[in-house]
Amino acid sequence: MCLILTSLQRKPEFFVSSTPAIPSAATPPAVAAFRALVATLTSHIAGRPLDAELDAWLNQQHGVGSVTYQQLMAACVQGVAEGWLCKYEGGGLRYGRIFKPADDLHGFSVDVVDMQDVAGPHHVHPEGEIDFVMPIDATALFDGHPAGWMVTPAGSAHSPTVTQGRALVLYLLPNGRIEFTKTA
What we know:
Elements: E1 2-5, H1 29-45, H2 52-62, H3 67-82, E2 88-90, E3 93-99, E4 108-119, E5 123-125, E6 129-135, E7 141-142, E8 148-152, E9 156-158, E10 161-174, E11 179-183
Antiparallel strand pairs: 1-11, 2-3, 3-4, 4-10, 5-9, 5-11, 6-8, 6-10, 7-10
């Protein structure tokens, strides 16, 4: 038997975040700068189908070696080091939803996970998922993919897995939609 948990139902404890959707005056400057960086990126992908064409475009325009890649990775590494990213821990990984879906993010939620040689909980992407893979260890792979972007279409599912070392993965979910599955 499979139990589906939607965004309206209780999520596994290690994927619940109390981070506000909109930065407040108390938001650290690094968090606001990170949000602005992500908002700039999402403005270029809003309304596009989550498919192989978007995957290729992201890797060509914003892939390894690009300014976007360098800025996003530096911000994520900084956020983990400062504790405002991946501030929860469970199941052998660190994680956290830093931003809920919002207009300035073009309807995407933003999560970051810090994984080392581990598989995360199985889930389905009702509207697709965009993953930004940032190996900390040069050999690390996320679901068999090296550094760069990985776009999965609506209805896809997986147990997100990092092998051969440690990687940070930023993922964008349209409307924040994710369905965790659990075998009963």
